[in-house]
């Protein structure tokens, strides 16, 4: 919206500096503080190119960096700056729309991943808290020599070893599912590692 409004002011004949000072009175959500800072810097006499450069350093976002780079190049080159601003505005809007669409499309798959992990966790907890201790107690009650259930012979069992194996399986399962959920939702390694942890 900011880029589109900037293009409209430019078409109306205002310079970039006057346009930004005028737009500082507008409503741009999270961008309000940054537009006000840009307006203040321009009023202090800082060159428009430097203002854009400082803005890019403060707001570390690939979309902002690309849009500001386009605006800065257009301002230096002259010509049809309004067309370039509108193109940058459209580009930023499309990127945000695609990110939102991706989150919505992948959201159900991520929910399934989390649900399956918690089902696995529940099964492991039930096994570790009831089933394995019952078998160990039964084995101890028969003198440790073993117990037969049909064709199955249960020898002496180490409860700590089995619990350790369960713990490692949970860690592997959680890491794998977290990485899958993170990559599916954002496509970034940082998000995958964050969800895995």
What do you see in this structure?
The protein has 197 residues and is mostly helical. The protein is built from eight helices and two strands; from the N terminus they run H-H-H-H-H-H-E-E-H-H. A two-stranded antiparallel ribbon has the order 1-2. The chain is rod-shaped and about 95 Å long. The two termini are 37 Å apart.
Sheet with the most strands?
A: 2 strands, antiparallel
Write down the oligomeric state. Answer: single chain
- Poorly predicted runs are none
* Mean pLDDT across every amino acid position: 79
What percentage of amino acids are in beta strands?
Answer: under 5%
How far apart the termini lie comes to: 37 Å
Count of individual beta strands: 2
Strand order of the largest sheet: 1-2
Order of helices and strands: HHHHHHEEHH
What keyword list fits this structure?
rod-shaped; single chain; two-stranded antiparallel ribbon; mainly alpha; 78% helix; 2 strands; 197 residues
Set out the fold topology.
Elements: H1 2-11, H2 16-23, H3 32-43, H4 48-58, H5 62-77, H6 81-141, E1 147-149, E2 152-154, H7 159-185, H8 189-196
Antiparallel strand pairs: 1-2
How would you briefly describe this protein structure?
This protein has helices spanning 2-11, 16-23, 32-43, 48-58, 62-77, 81-141, 159-185, 189-196, and strands at 147-149, 152-154.
């Amino acid at each position: 919206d900011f880029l589109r409004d900037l293009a409209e002011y430019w078409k109306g004949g205002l310079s970039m500096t006057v346009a930004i000072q005028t737009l500082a009175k507008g409503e741009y959500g999270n961008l309000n503080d940054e537009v006000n800072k840009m307006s203040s810097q321009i009023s202090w006499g800082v060159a428009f190119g430097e203002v854009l450069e400082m803005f890019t350093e403060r707001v570390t976002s690939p979309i902002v960096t690309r849009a500001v780079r386009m605006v800065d190049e257009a301002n230096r080159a002259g010509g049809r700056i309004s067309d370039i601003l509108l193109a940058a505005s459209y580009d930023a809007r499309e990127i945000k729309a695609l990110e939102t669409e991706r989150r919505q499309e992948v959201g159900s798959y991520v929910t399934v991943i989390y649900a399956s992990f918690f089902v696995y966790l529940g099964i492991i907890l039930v096994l570790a808290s009831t089933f394995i201790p019952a078998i160990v107690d039964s084995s101890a009650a028969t003198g440790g020599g073993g117990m037969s259930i049909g064709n199955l012979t249960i020898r002496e069992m180490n409860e700590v070893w089995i619990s350790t194996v369960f713990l490692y399986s949970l860690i592997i399962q959680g890491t794998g599912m977290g990485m899958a959920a993170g990559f599916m939702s954002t496509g970034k390694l940082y998000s995958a590692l964050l969800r895995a942890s």
